[in-house]
Write a structure and sequence with these properties.
The chain folds into three domains: 75 residues, OB fold (Dihydrolipoamide Acetyltransferase, E2P); 101 residues, no CATH class; 198 residues, Chloramphenicol acetyltransferase-like domain (Chloramphenicol Acetyltransferase), CATH 3.30.559. It contains nine helices and 21 strands. The strands form six sheets. Strands 11, 14, 17, 18, 19, 20 and 21 form a seven-stranded mixed β-sheet that branches. Strand 4 and strand 5 form a beta hairpin. The longest helix has 18 residues. The relative contact order is 0.11.
Length: 435
Amino acid sequence: MQQLVMPNVGEGVAEGTVTQWLKHEGDTVAADEPVVEIETDKAVVEIPSPYSGTLARILVQEGETVPIGTTLAEFETEGAAVAPRESPAPSVTAAAPAGALAAARGVPIGAARRTRRYSPVVLKLAEEHDVDLSLVRGTGVEGRVTRQDVLAYVENPVLHAAPPPEGSGVVGATKRDGAAAQTKPAPQATKTEAGAPASQDGLIPLSATRRTIAARMLESQRTIPAAWMVVEADVTGLASLRSRLKEEFRRAEGVDLTYLPFFLRAVVAGVKEHPEINVLFAEEGLRPQQGIHLGIAVATEAGLVVPVLRDAGDLSITGLAKEAARLGERARSRKLTVDEMRGCAITVDNTGSFGSIMSQPIVPPGQTAIITLEAIRREVRVTDEDAIAIRSVVNVCISFDHRALDGEEVGRFMQAVRGHLESITADGSIDDGAG
């Protein structure tokens, strides 16, 4: 027997929920064919089979949350068919709770059949908020109701209600006492994180994402002796170059030309000059990283997500802009793959997009440093020629794991980053120095 285990789906992710088995016991499965859908606080991902053979036993049922490394299923790889084991009796918490749940609530048989399309995560959320899923408008594949759809419906039932069946005569309905009836629109719930309603005393319940972020940040503060540094860079040339080329770049490449790809390029250059920065701390020693893979902090409705831009050292400014835009969109739509969420020592954050001029970020657990580009501001400066001029300046801040790096190493790296930012000229080409 071969085993399929819950994979590591991202930095700091300790567990995942099985939302749907795409194959059943006894099914023949090809290598790399998706067999199970996993949901974490960061993304929903399909896990491919590492084997060709038969899915012999499913060990973790839909709706169950288990730690990374847990065996999810067993495969018979010799090609012989394996009889599936007997399924457990249906219950509202078992792998296929839709029918029992509908019956317990008095939902009509037609609605019960429809709820079989819902994932256990969605069913659990509906249970918590007392929502009839047949009334929720689905925005997923083939109209499937997602977790976000349920939360949106809780916040505003009228705006996110599914259209009633033709000829039903039902204008709007909510589920109470097991019966659907024509009602007045439900009042809009108090807007809170992830749509969770506030209690009467104003307490806002924590979402799964916020709980995970809280746990990870506490872990970082407890285990990583972090140090902090800031340098200032004169980016007058960069600001002028971007201003001159951003419209042309948008038309030619289809993505916005922000300051982020220039900053990524400067970080890459700094790592190339000082590879000692690209390490991870372990009790047995420092682990140098192969390749330059940079985490990119992305703000989403579900919270902060850090996809990993792989092989950043091989990309030009144009390539970095496109890849950063692609990863940002996938993060916001919760479509990141396992490989897109792990394997970096350094995270880059463009906090300047919020107008911040100085940040002291917390080092993500499992990484060595996080570096931020702050807001570019116009200030009066004395030039090298002792003249007074108005220049575009920016702060670059870094928090780092002092177990892995010393101030001298980080200082040299930050000098290199600053030097590359300041070397960009207003009349240069967008990809000058790339490669």
